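Contributing new records

If you add data, match the layout below exactly. Sequence lines come first and carry their own label; structure lines follow with theirs. Keep one chain per record. Anything else will be rejected by the validation script.
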Amino acid sequence: MSEFSSSSLPRFHLNPGRVIFSQAPLLVTTILGSCVSVVMFHSKSNTGAMCHGLLPTCHCGLSLQTGQTCDDCFRYMDCSIHYMVNEFSAMKIPSRELTVKLFGGADMFSTGQSKTVGNQNIAVAKKILREKSMPIFAEDVAGEQGRKIFFFTHTGEVRLKRLGKNRQRYAEFQEELAVIRTLS
């Protein structure tokens, strides 16, 4: 790990439907069920970005066509990824210099269907990254367990904690998330 210990870093909880882009050292946490987070890191500038997308595709078309965003665009994987790539591009950082990691997309309640929201989120994220020639360096996706992600924006390091796969543990985690939001 870097010269910063995790206890001395400023912390930021990334809520669903949000994106964070930081050049400052931060410890960003988020909790994922069927949602997906894409993490991007540029090692030369120690700049990190992370999204927490709830749904696969936004239909506004703004970020794809004009670089603008709609009010709810960060709820969607496609708009969030395009936004992050555009932010790095504005800093003159080409996408080929980014390390990309992908997390989440669980089927929290074991529906057994292949068209779950989590699977769709994963598919859209991978499709866009493939189209942009951005290989995924690491991933932990799908399955039946939620995840808590710890992202160090200044090093690109990601730590992951798997959550219990039953409804009881998921409900407990939602309560924990509510407390985190209240304290933020």
